[in-house]
Amino acid sequence: MSGPSVGPAVFDSSFGERVRALLRVRPVADAAANTGRQSWGDRRYDVVTMALAGIDAVIARQGLDDEVGYDEVVAGLEELAAATHPECSVEEHASVARYVLDALLNRRDREAPYRYYVSVFSRDETGTVAHRELSVEFRLLTEHEEPARGVNVLRATPDAINALVGGLEFDVEDEQAAVELMLARQLERGAFGQAEKAAERSRLLSVRYADELRALMADTSRDIRAVLGQWSSDVPQQLERSRVHLEDRLAAEARLLDHVRGALDGAESEPSVTSAAVRIAGLLEECRRRHTELHGKLVNARMTFIDEQTRQMFRPLGGLRNPDLTDDVFLPLLRLPVDAAVDPAETFAVAIAGTQVPRIVRLADLVDDLMAPRRSGDIDEPLDPDEEPGDPEPPAVPVAVLIAAAAVVDSVQLPARLSVLLTAAESAVLPAEVDRKSVLRVIALAALWSYAPESVEDFAAAVDAAAQVLGSTVAIDADGTPLRLDGWSGDDLIVAEDEESLAAWAEAALSVSKGER
Amino acid sequence: MTLSQRDLADVGVLIGCGLRPKLRAGADSDYRGLLDRYRADIEFRNAVNSVLDGLDTRVLSDSDLGLVLGVRRESVFAYRISDLSNVGGVTERLLVGLVSVAIAAFTFPTPGDFDDDRVRRVSVYEVERFLRATCDRLKRSPETASRQEEMFEEAWRTYDRLSPGYKADKGEGKARRSKASSVYWVASVLTWMVDQGLARPASGLASAPETFQLLERFRIQARELAGNATYDVLSAIRRDGGEEGIG
Prior knowledge:
- The structure holds two protein chains of two kinds.
- By secondary structure, chain A is mainly α.
- Helices cover 60% and strands 7% of the residues of chain A.
- By secondary structure, chain B is mainly alpha-helical.
- In chain B, strand 1 (57-61) and strand 2 (68-71) form a beta hairpin.
- Classes of the chains: A mainly alpha, B mainly alpha.
């Protein structure tokens, strides 16, 4: 090993860890360097500080019931921007705040992970330096749908939390104990400025700790098989250790809080010490709240495992692995013949759709729906290319036939039986261009439509035609008498001008039949 | 302990809640209470599952989101794709299916992507371009060239034939989209997903126009049911088709 100009550390395996830790700062540094394109780019806003403040605002409520959303963080950052340049517009402050938060979310790149390339150097026995390139991907903030409320909330990734803590990758529990010890010593020495920093770190560690546990629980309820090994080996001990540790922490934090309060009570305290002590007390209070919550989760962890085991035992095998949509579904589907592809394509659409509750149309709703003004959705109904608006459909029955049929009905004294009307039509004098058969059919159909309009598809048109032929008040009834005319079958319907004359006819018919008896 | 009539009524209430995809357990204390009971009380859980089983439906997830139900196609609760407006024929049903799969494949391209519950957004144009690019790739693939002679037409050509319709949409604000344009189908499938509680129009100033946020429910339905169910149908076709020389 000769001594080249580069130190040997670059070839150490631990060197890469440091490089990766440093990389976590890149997105923030890039955001600060690239403000040139913004309208406010030539004014100095401290993007780095604001970015860290943004991450901190997210971490402050992460894992609690009221995690922060995008707009809340923006509002907080706007305040910082406004304090930086009070003379500028509110819009500009908002734009700066969004720029910072969007950078943390990598929104410009569809919230994809940041990706950087790092060089890994190694040296073999002969002293030759080899180079390998590795890509490193990570996110700082992510957006999640909060299930209970349905709103979007932000969470900081372990990368962001670690970067903020200082790129340290220690066992959480040990580090926490160290921080505790440090805090206690600093308080004893009266070094409140440092104690405050330590308390802040203690809080961040609590957040990271909660995140680790949440990840384990999420994995467990997702697919227990993936974490079964972990559960049988180290998880039980880890949980037990964590439980004891948490109980210690809760006690320790209570003690520290007393200590800090004691410092506050000291009458001769400097104002700077007092205000630092107040802030530390607040931080410790929050740590305690977090630990209490965490404690609850921890107690339930074993139950979660047992429940999930029971639940997933009965889960169908296919449901256990995540589907490979691109290679197993999307591409094979596209390559199927059209006829064969409809079924699987529809299977997917039906399965993704979830449920649809079958509805029976109520008449009252139907009328309301028909009378309601047309909804103007974002997506307009397209025009059917084959259907041109313009000429109304030609009537199915020529007007001349309708007039001739009406004339025949007028010539007969109503009420009358359909057979009488049809016989009259057979012998009536008709205009030359009118087809007698059409007239006969129109009279029969008009009687039928008026008698049973619900049997007709085009209800309105049928009723109109019937009214034109028979009159708008026409009343029709059947008494079971068959129609005895060549070429016709069915009931010999009774056609009356209105309900009243129909009733009179019925009475007369009744008395006739009685008289006959 | 056996379930009382009152408990059975609760079974009905919980299923009723599950059938309303836009109802959040967090927003309804009765729902939340019954959901907790479903998670904790094995007997109650079995009763709910059995009733659902009789309706060709099963619980895909019982997170704080609520009861997410998955249906088999023969279920009374299954969505009838032909109920969608302008979906009458076989071609339209195929398009709705293709676009649905495309949205899911665009959002969750690999199995591992399902494990990440971060918020996903898609815009109409992104999905259109994704489908268009996939069609172009298939068009240029050597396999396609060798298949030109065959009698059947592959499914992707149905989408490829649609006009992208970019120009018609520019300016005019709400220009009407033709059924012959692909953006019409992408937009209408996404709008339908909003109605089904699978997506919502993305809010916020940073969003591109016509952007939708796919909701947690979408991830669950795609992961727990739709992906594997469709894979099963495709495998069955491949098995049967292998004998007839298709596939």
